[in-house]
Design brief:
five-stranded antiparallel beta sheet, single chain, 3 domains, Phosphorylase Kinase, domain 1, Phosphotransferase
Length: 412
């Protein structure tokens, strides 16, 4: 039977031991010997494509190393960027394989991953030559074939002692690079506290200044309130009207059935609950018109910086565009409703913030819309534990789906 007939998107191939011969062949083609491997990360687009990464131990002629391998399989043939990687075929199945950091969709990653290369780039930013040993790189997040963010810490000797400066390096796809740079510059010109673009490169690296303060994702656990609900609404309302003229990004709720299917593929036992939730959300929002307010598009506690009880920074403005204010506030509610691995004291503080903030949000937007949109975002977040191969991903997934049900039940 055709491999693509019973596994069109390659999800079975890439998430089981069936992938072992492919990984071994790819490593051998590169001149090494695969010693061991384990699944690290999965991005599934049911019936369309699957991308996975694998941590691997490889013996090379120069010695043994830990490596990260990436593989993509598609139901409907190659994309232009697939051609940048090695393509392996077995009958009618093709798989695209690359060795980190040579991600075929992120050309700048091959530079951003090495202190020697980043030292050259950052020397121009700080205005003095930087030797590689004065640059430390930490990977903050990597979504294969989508994006990566690294923290680059430079250290310069001064008479007063070492001076450390932190930059964040966004590694972007070519199609998005110009748009993302423009969005940062637009918001800064309007006084919105987005990061300053310190450098931009031809291979799609965006070097950003570090924001002041601390992430709200840390501050939510502090004894004192990190900011007010009114301030959260204010930072959104401070975005300029030009944002509403940007291309529209569909709200999370438009994709609720897609995300429900992704979660169902990982945990079939949740199919009935997810189908019911997707129906309730879609039907409940069917008559709500598209909005034309400036929106952030992915507004949650990890994107907001605070200091002294005030908001002082707004991150990841790649997704700004027209929408409804309920989209952004619902995104924040969803993320706060699904914070994982908290102790009892932390959980109590987050519950208190939600109990304090949500009534204020209810005055700004329709309460039913807020909860339905929040539930849709929660379902999208339910794909995370499996995608990241968390140790207890099944239990975490069930807990997230429980949170979506709680939100929907509040408006039935």
């Amino acid at each position: 039977m055709s491999a693509t007939l019973h596994d069109p998107d390659g999800s079975r191939l890439l998430t089981t031991d069936q992938v072992a011969p492919l990984l071994a062949a790819a490593v051998s083609h590169a001149g090494g010997t695969l010693v061991s491997w384990s699944l690290d990360h999965v991005d599934a687009n049911p019936s369309q494509s699957t991308t996975a990464t694998y941590t691997a131990v490889v013996d090379w002629p120069f010695g043994r190393r830990n490596e990260l391998l990436g593989v993509s399989a598609r139901a409907h043939g190659r994309t232009p960027t697939d051609e940048r990687a090695e393509i392996f075929a077995d009958g009618d199945r093709e798989a695209v394989v690359w060795l980190y950091p040579r991600d075929p969709d992120l050309p700048g990653l091959a530079r951003a991953a090495y202190p020697e290369e980043m030292a050259k780039l950052l020397s121009g930013v700080v205005g003095v030559p930087l030797p590689p040993e004065r640059v430390r790189l930490d990977m903050i997040g990597y979504r294969p074939r989508r994006r990566a963010v690294l923290r680059a810490t430079t250290e310069l000797p001064t008479p007063q002692g070492p001076r450390r400066t932190v930059f964040y390096v966004k590694v972007l796809r070519e199609a998005l690079f110009g748009e993302v740079r423009h969005r940062h510059e637009m918001l800064r010109a309007a006084g919105v506290p987005a990061p300053r673009v310190a450098a931009a490169t031809g291979d799609c690296l965006l070097v950003l200044d570090e924001l002041p303060g601390i992430p709200l994702s840390k501050a939510i656990f502090d004894p004192e309130p990190p900011c007010t609900a009114e301030q959260l609404i204010w930072v959104l309302d401070s975005m300029p009207r030009q944002v509403a003229a940007l291309p529209r990004r569909a709200p999370w709720s438009d994709s609720v059935r897609h995300y429900a299917e992704m979660v169902t593929q990982a945990m079939p036992t949740l199919e009935h609950r997810l189908r019911w939730l997707a129906d309730e959300i879609s039907n409940g929002l069917a008559s709500v018109p598209l909005g034309d307010e400036p929106t952030h598009g992915d507004f949650h506690e990890g994107q907001i910086h605070v200091a002294g009880g005030q908001i002082c920074g707004l991150l990841d403005v790649d997704t700004i565009g027209p929408g409804r204010r309920a989209d952004d506030l619902a995104c924040l509610v969803a993320h706060l409703s699904t914070v994982q691995r908290m102790n009892a004291q932390q959980a109590a503080r987050v519950r208190h913030l939600l109990a304090t903030w949500v009534p204020v949000f209810d005055e700004r937007v329709d309460p039913t819309e807020l909860r339905l949109r929040a539930a849709a975002v929660v379902i999208s977040l339910a794909t995370g534990p499996y995608r990241g191969q968390e140790q207890n991903w099944q239990a975490e997934t069930v807990g997230i789906v429980d949170a979506a049900e709680t939100l929907v039940s509040q408006v039935l």
